[in-house]
Amino acid sequence: MDELTLAVVGIDFPNADKSKSNRRMELMLCVPGDPVELRREPKNPHDANAVAVFSGRGVQIGYLSAERAPLIGRRMQQEEHLAVFQALTGSMGYVRIRFGGGAPTLPAPGDAETPAPNRAATFDPDAFYPDPEGPEWGA
After folding, report:
1. Which of 6, 62, 109, 132 is surrounded by the fewest CB atoms within 10 Å?
2. The HIRAN domain covers which part of the protein (predicted)?
């Protein structure tokens, strides 16, 4: 059994249904722990590995990222899995999936896996927050 937090992308695109339902609005209605459904879309014209994400109300809220979809889609075919809504932060939604049986557990606020706005962290606007060490970009 293992669990993963996965990003949900494309939340600002309208759905293709008759009402052009709003993915972001649907995400805003989700509560952490709500069940979500992952559906493989092998006939998707843009990506045969696409995995769509639907709320418990049956409204599409986006897709798993193209980098994760092939692996997750393959595992979905081979293993029992359950997924729940985890968080909405800015332009990304997050879901938690558990393979191998049982319900996924949500990380506690403050855990490294919890998206930043849901962490119980404090922000000091007067403090200095340097960028992490990285390559030199000088001209």
Report:
1. 132
2. 31-78
> How far apart are the C-alpha atoms of 138 and 126, rounded to whole Å?
27
Exposed / middle / buried, residue 24 (Cβ in 10 Å: 0-12, 13-18, 19+): middle
Q: Give the model confidence (pLDDT) of 27-79 as tens digits.
A: 999 999 999 999 999 999 999 999 999 999 999 999 999 999 999 999 999 99
pLDDT, the chain, mean: 84
Distance CA 57, CA 12 (A): 18
Q: Which residue has the tokens 């293993």?
A: 79
Domains and CATH numbers, the chain: 2-118 (3.30.70.2330)
